[in-house]
Write the structure tokens for this entry.
Amino acid sequence: MENYQHAVFFEAKSLSDEELRQIQLYFKIRRRSGGGDCEIYKVGNSTYKISFMNKNAQERVLERKDHVIKVEGQEDIHVSLSLENVTESSEQPTASANQKCPKSVEKVLKLNHYLLRFFSECKSPYSDLEKRLSKVSSTFEINADCEELVVTRDPAAADVFPLKKWEFAVDEVFETLKSRYIIHFEVERDKSVSLEENSFLQSDNLKIFFEELTCLAVVVGERTEVEKRLKFLSGLKEKLQIQQECCMSEKQYGLIKERFEQYIKTKLPALKIEQERAGVLLLKGPEKEVHAGEEELLKLALGIREKRIPCHRAVMTFMESSGSIQHFQNRFQQSLCSPVMLETSGSDLLLLSLSDGALEEAAAAVQRDVCLENVRLENTQKSSAFTKLKEDLNEAVDQANRGSVKVELKYQDESTTNPKVQLVGYPTEVNKLKKIVLEYKRNHQNHHTSLPLPRPEMAEHFSDILAMAGVKKSSVEIKPTFLPFPCVHLTGPCCEVESLKDSLKSFLQSLATKRCEVKGPGVQQFFQSEDTRTLQLVKNSYRVVILPIDDVPRYIRSTSLLPVASVSSPDSMESDKEINIKVVVGSLEQQQADVFVAPMIKTKMTSTLIGSSLLNKAGQQLQNNFKRAKGNHTLKPGEVLQVDGTQALGCSKNFFIGFFIVHWKFPHLANTSKVSYIMSLTVNTALFHSLTSDLDEIIMPVDGIELHLVFGDITNETTDAIVNTTDFKDFQTAGVCKDILTKAGPQIQAQLTGAQVARGQIFTTPPGGFPCKTIMHICGLRDPDVIKTLAKEIVVQSEQGCCRSVAIPAICAGQGGLDPCVVAKSILEGVKDGVQGANLQHLKSIRIVLLKINVFLAFKAMAKQIFGALAPLAPTSVITRGRSGSTRSRSHSLTSPVTSDFSSLMKSLPDTESRAAFLVIGYINNVSNACREIQQAYKSQCCTHTIFRDEIRCLTEDEKKQLYSKVSSLHLQIEQISSDRWVVKGLKDGVNEVVRLIQDALRRQVRDKEQSILFSQVTWCILGSRGVWQKVPKDVNYLLEKGDVKDGIVDAQGVKWTVNLGKMEANACHSGEVTALKRLENLSDFSLPIYWNNMSQGDSLQVNELDQSSTEYQTVKADFKKTVPKTVLKIQRIQNMNLRRLYEGRKKELEDKNGSVGAAEKMLYHGTSEESCSSIIKSNFNRSFSGQNATNYGHGTYFAVNASYSAQNKYAVAAADGTQLMFVARVLTGYHTRGKADMKTPPVREEPDRYDSVVDSLQNPSMFVIFHDCQAYPDYLITFK
């Protein structure tokens, strides 16, 4: 401004910005006003100042005091200049102001400089002017520099045109010219450029002048021509303009609008701004100006600061509906240094400003001046007080919202018994309504108090205490708890709660308590037995309360613990040193416990998923309890924040433990649990000796075998037998069947396709690719009875197949859709039926493998019902995979070690010395008497029994294991009191079972001895399916001899028969097959071969002709006919008791001498004559007759391998009728070598032993020679022809 020091002044009423711009532009143009570069601004109410940079410009504009500025489409602006800032009264000069007429009669007209140039430079307008003035006898002279037109009257026309008439006529001419010709000043730069670039727009009737300094274009010409050119120019300009959308909210633009529009006004006058739609500005104008405007807009937008305030949805709704946003904006406009705009953005309130300070102040004000309160009510249904509360609140809301909305009220969960009142608005109004609600809660809702209990056990059995105290039923809720200390919570109307508290307190103070502890084997089972009423009788007799005290108190056991932290209560009562921690599958908030423990980070409850889950279930009450407990404190890692529980969670306390975030740096833990590793470093592992899980494997001893419940995949099992459950149709649906067949291979599936399997039957296949011995395929038909039958049959077939282990899935619990509890009951009962009393010799392990957690837990619960309480948790080494060896497994088990040393076996028993502790509550005399009665009740049901060494010796290994199992399962105690005696102690029923076991063993020993003696004296045989006689088992032999066959017999192959001793026949139970029985009486030193007929004591020789239909006959004949085509007439069996006794003696001698080679008994042939036959039958073969036929291989008895050799006539000499004889002999060949003609005994093999026989060829012998008469026995005599 200091460069513009040459000022002039003018007065005018209030001028618009556009009018000031036109005036400034006029005085900048020297040719129009005589001025130059200048500034214009207002200096008074109606006074304006124009300051020029150049003094000459000031002087030139003052030469013409009055200036007329023409504005297109508006009235002319008249400006009277003065050098002083004073008000001058002057009339505006008009363009027609008369000059003092000179004597030469001239009239000087002041015309626009550009109009004068137009007349001078354009012929047509000039001629028009000249023509018009000539009509009034005048000539003219143009002086453009002085902006004057001098009109001179022709002196000769003075008479025609007197002075006044002439002047009037001249004025008319110029008025006509002024209406015909117009001047347009184009000040817009882009239009000026367009006029300059398009020279074709000029013509004889239109001239365009350009001012280079100001980029002004002046268009002069006939009115129609000028308007036509300007219209064309406007259309051309519109074609050259562009438009650009800029995304910006109304609130954002409001902050920068003033700055942006000022910039547009001064720098980009051609740019137009429009609000296209919400959040979008539209910039229109020349391309350069549009891009420049967009760049400036974005630049200004970068200066906008924003701050988000997360708000509850209720707060956002209130802000939008109550007009609070506009309220705060108006308030900030007046009170803050910079405007602040507010708008909603999702769940956030967005604050916008150009000042960080203003933004922070505004955010603090909003958060301070809008609040939300939720108050939970209880038991409001059908409550007249709640109805009155709603009326009072509605009245208070109406009063608070007079004039404007200041508070809103909503009811949530109104259909429940515990609705919630939500208040949102300004603090003053919200607090007024909150006071009304809290006053209602104090007057009409439940009162809560606690009464400490002397012992934690009282909390667990508080109902018994109440019954003893005679407390009547009332509206007070009584809830005992253990933690953080034993107490009882009383909730209800205030007067009733306080009255009950006083009476209970007085009653508890009058009571005496005493701990009664009973020790001994089975004591816990005695007092837990359902059929005993001992404790109830003592209670009724002495009017006391008897509370059992667990080894692990429930108030510790039921605390839900996280695996990474443990918390001890400072008020905890007496407890054992060990703490049992149970790992439960599930979410923390779903557990039943008195205390929940959860981690948190930076004292924020919802910093972990566990904390968030607790809050979701408990609701706002837990959040309020947390805030009260926390206060202004920040927990350090490891510190515990105790927060009161809520009814929704069902706990009395929540312990929140401060944690810190650990950045793991353990590269060597890639395949292990990092949490487990850290715990192993920081936690004393002795604390977790009793750590158990709901999914631990369960092992139960059942009659000498182990029954396993396994949570896992059956395809990972390697037992001897695998059970596959299928419908024999669908092998593709995902499940156990598909998994097993995938592993077994397509050849197994092919065997199943189309298989016809009867109801309750098992279809067995090889294992294929499955690592087992056999696969049993079954269909449960979704029938519990069928499943039970199948489970029993699986046990039976596993035993018959000599399988040591079998794996069974949950039949029909998956794809079958049966209830897991039903399936568990059927399978476990079926297994139990199959195992009990079966005396299994092979099957030792049954594994029920369950893939789903709910199914496993159902089986576990059902196993407890069927087999009793599971054994204590103990890590043991057990066989878990059939043939795959042993693996370490944590399981519920009692393992029966296999040992023949009874003392060692009994020492391996767990300590069964147990105790049952009770807390007896009552009046002091009654308490003492009740304790004595409890002790006596247990002692009266106990007994002892002494076991002697001789009794132990009669036990088999299986019976020892059964004894071990019974002592364990019946909770008995066994002690060795001397080297040959043991004492069993415990409950009478258990001791009696052990006595019965030993007595049964003694009876079995006597029976076994009798059976063995009888078996050596008498042999019963049954004719097998192939016609071969078989001995029956020893116990069956005993039954047959005693005639005790009413229940039938079972042969050595497991086939059951009914017996008719009169006919000596047996009938197969399943097939109906009939077969023969026979009885052989043995000598004291000789047992008859089973294929012989019975012989009496005085009968030492029998020759029995064989029945040609018998298998025995057919077998001997078939072997003979292999090499001899002759006809067999008869075959006789030789039963020479004396010869056979000598033969069996020699056989035993060779077996003992030759080791693995043994006696090498062979069936060989020896041809003979009719004369020699009877001698051989009576006296055996005699080597002294050697040489009658040949002695090529020594002087012994010769036997042929093939009957054809012995059938030659020289050996089997034909009788007169042509018949021949040949013996089939049993020959003991033992070690043999090639014979020589001069041999009378076999050569020495190894000193002092000799070979047992000689042959004709070592490679393929056809002849055996023996040198010992007892080394052969004539078994059969064949007569042939």
Notes: The longest strand covers residues 512-521. The chain has 39 helices and 60 strands. The radius of gyration is 62 Å. Confidence is low (pLDDT under 50) at residues 87-103, 551-578, 662-692, 871-900.
